[in-house]
Amino acid sequence: MATATAVKGNHIGGREVSAPSGMSTFTSVNPANHADVVGVFPRSSEEEIAEAVKAATKAFQTWSTTPAPVRGDVLLRIAERLTEEKESLAQLMSREMGKVLVEARGDVQEAIDMAKYMAGEGRRALGATYPSELRNKWAMTVRAPLGVVGCITPWNFPIAIPSWKSFAAIMAGNAVVLKPAEDTPMLAARFVEILESAGLPPGVLNVVHGLGEEAGEALLHHPDVKAISFTGSVEVGRHVAKVCGEQLKRFSLELGGKNAIVVLDDADLDLVVDGAIWGAFGTSGQRCTATSRLIVQRKVLAPLLERLVARARKLRIGPATDPATEVGAVINDTQKDRILSYIAIGKEEGATLLTGGNALTEGAFHAGSFIEPTIFSDVRKDMRIAQEEIFGPVLSVIPVDDFDEAIEVANSTPYGLSLSIYTASVHATFQAIERFDAGLVYVNAPTIGAEIQLPFGGTKQTGNGFREAGATAFDEFTEWKSVYIDYSGQLQRAQIDTEA
Ligand code: UN1
Predict the structure, then answer these.
(1) Which of 151, 155, 234, 289 for mutating ligand 1's site (highest number of atoms within 8 Å of CB)?
(2) 229-240 pLDDT, tens per residue?
(3) Which of 2, 145, 236, 254 is 20 to 30 Å from 486 at the Cα level?
(4) Per the residue annotation, which of 51, 288, 372, 389 is the catalytic one?
(5) Can you state the percent helix, strand and coil of the chain, rounding each to 5?
(6) Residue to mutate, 456, 462, 467, 468, ligand 1, most ligand atoms under 8 Å from C-beta
(7) Which of 102, 112, 164, 448 has the most ligand 1 atoms within 8 A of CB, as the residue to mutate?
(8) What are phi and psi of 229, to 5 degrees?
(9) What does pTM read for this prediction?
(10) Alpha-carbon distance 380 to 7, whole Å?
């Protein structure tokens, strides 16, 4: 893996546009070693966004009228190209984002899966036919693309999430302006290059780098951007909602989570330990689906905690580029400090710190942002560490007396992304599926690991009702057209000329 610093421009209308001299820039660095600068990128604002929207508007004319199966063929070639680049992207991801290699490969695989799925959508019916109440009249629906859509994506799934959004959008015939997270711009730069090398026409996907408050803001406000698809924090989500609401612009939000595993006293504890460790500390806890609460029936609490703590202490922390590493760095020092402040809050609130709780700063760790896998017990459901999204390797264990209390605690946060139950009981399983207030429900598996063919998203403050992935993703990026065809040769009035 080359460690040279690359200077990159935006990618607009099929080519990389170098930033004019004097333009402000920002850098992307390796979270495990801040001295390793991955790239220098333009700090874009209104002007660059306007240029990208213009290129997208032009590309939309041709792309939207290209037959859907032909658009699907492009997505299939994208799947092939991403497969060829899987290892190089995974290596770059572990360097730029800090995700361990095994997981980085999974992140790219999620994009490959999505490209294959969307390729197939090109040949599936996108609408339905309906009976008309009148003779010699036919009714059907078709989906129409919106035009230029804006996608604002986070750093934690730097290839997968841009693919969820952009593949659905372009399959539906839209053109896209993507503003990727400022922590992972190089991956977005590679992403668009690979897509175009697979035959995606110029201007169908444009990438504009910059900060949320500058480039992101300009994208939100641009009058020719018909919809915004945003994944990020609740705070920014509210802002997106305000700006888009004011303009009556469509917006879809994927925001936080405060996901939980419920452990009943008949659960297989070996399975629970494996699931909780993977769910809480995979991706260093930086998934919106991460398991951040473990709600445990008291009878199994002591043996479970003993095993969990032993396993957490054994996890190997280090740079993601080292294949032996199990828990990589967190994305940057701002996040590190935020996670540490939550650990301090947990202590103040009276939770018991069982393991972890510190940043790692000795030796090589000094160069990056590392935090130990941390487990709190004796957590009460109303504590801040049980309510607020931490986005780091911190697990809060909440003891409960029975099933009903477990469900009530699971549902007691402002979020509703992912909830899980470990039990051997069929009755409890189906009760939980029914009563969990969440968009994703898992049984005997942790809260992470959604597959792309199913809808992805959550209830309450996790979003605004849209779902990404699967065929439901088209709801974000299309308008329905209801079409009536009267071949009776006379005026037939609906609701009036119907037969008794
Ligand atoms: C996210 O954290 O924003 O279900 C997405 C999962 C992954 C996607 C997570 N497939 O954990």
Answers:
(1) 289
(2) 999 999 999 999
(3) 145
(4) 288
(5) 40, 25, 35
(6) 456
(7) 448
(8) -115, 115
(9) 0.96
(10) 49
**Any residues with Cβ below 6 Å from ligand 1, and which?**
110, 156-157, 287-289, 448-450
Atom of ligand 1 nearest to the CA of 106: 10
Q: Which of 36, 44, 153 is nearest to 96 (CA)?
A: 36
Question: Using one digit for the tens of pLDDT, what is the confidence trace for 15-55?
Answer: 999 888 888 999 999 999 999 999 999 999 999 999 999 99
Alpha carbon distance 111, 187 (integer Å): 13
Half-sphere exposure of 196 (CA within 13 A, CB side): 19
Q: Where are the alpha helices (DSSP H) in 172-214?
A: 185-197
φ, ψ of residue 357 in degrees (nearest 5): 100, -5
3-state class of 496 per DSSP?
A: coil
Dmax over Cα atoms in the chain, in whole Å? 85
- Ligand 1 center–CA 449 separation, angstroms: 6
CA of 350 to the centre of ligand 1 (A): 31
Kindly give the distance from the C-alpha atom of residue 298 to the centroid of ligand 1, in angstroms, as a whole number.
30
Residues of the chain scoring pLDDT < 70: 1-5, 125
What is 295-310 written as a DSSP string? EEEHHHHHHHHHHHHH
| Residue partners of 125: CB distance under 8 A and separation at least 6 | none
> Other C-beta atoms within 10 Å of 408: how many?
14
Domains of the chain listed by start with CATH number = 6-255+463-482 (3.40.605.10), 259-443 (3.40.309.10)
Q: Does residue 159 contact residue 185 with C-beta atoms inside 8 Å?
A: no
